Amino acid sequence: MTNIKHIFFDLDHTLWDFDKNSALTFDFIFKKNDLQVDLPQFLEVYQPLNLQFWKLYREEKVSKEHLRFYRLKDTFDALNIEVEAEVINQLSDDYIDNLSNHNHLFEGTLEILDYLKPKYQLHIITNGFEAVQHHKMKKANIIQYFDTITNSEMVGVKKPNPKIFNHALDLANAKTSNSIMIGDNYEADILGALNIGLDAICYNYHNEKIDQSIKTINHLLEIKTYL
After folding, report:
1. Nearest Cα to 18, choosing from 157, 144, 187, 136?
2. What b/e readout covers 132-144, taking b as 16+ CB neighbours within 10 angstroms?
3. What CATH superfamily is the domain 18-99?
């Protein structure tokens, strides 16, 4: 792929190990708020619910505030745990405030960024909240690898909306013909990119069934086979 000059990465679930960091954050905030919750049981219910709420958020069907509150409330309701709305709001704030205090990266993240940085301009396109994403990248010591960071709040739309990809390309002074997107979410990252003519590599750490026509990796260091 000798024409590539710009690489656009998703952040959560692609470079930054969201599930591990999120679990550590919940463990901390439950203890902080003296809430007796079985963490593995909570996460088993919360994680798929959270993904559903993020899908609704991408589709502009729920607000940021709705997502933050009801992903917790619906989880507690499903577990038959009574938690007052005031406590849920506090947990929601504590979660955002503490999430970037845990900064586990996927295996191979720093090695692949070190490999790519001298050869390409690297960029981030994320649906995550602006302040949170900036803190994550800074505390994980990866922010210096990226020339531009595009988030959904600055554009007003979320992946897979073409506007966020086009905004990122314009910000990077890049073209679809000399760029590629790397992310884990088939709908938001891969189809979103392909729909505007931007090539894409799916980081399939979920081990989902992916169309054979899609460039796919199961470990970040496999990017070297393409770039």
Report:
1. 136
2. bbbbbbeebebee
3. Putative phosphatase; domain 2 (1.10.150.240)
Tell me the pLDDT tens digit for each residue of 94-152: 999 999 899 999 999 999 999 999 999 999 999 988 888 999 999 999 999 999 999 99
Helix (H, G, I), strand (E, B) or coil at 127: coil
φ, ψ at 110 (rounded to 5°): -65, -40
6-17+105-225 has which fold?
Rossmann fold (3.40.50)
Q: pLDDT (tens digit, 9 = 90+) per residue, 52-75?
A: 999 999 888 999 899 999 999 999
Written as six digits, the tokens of 147 are: 């020339």
Q: Where are the domains of the chain?
A: 6-17+105-225, 18-99
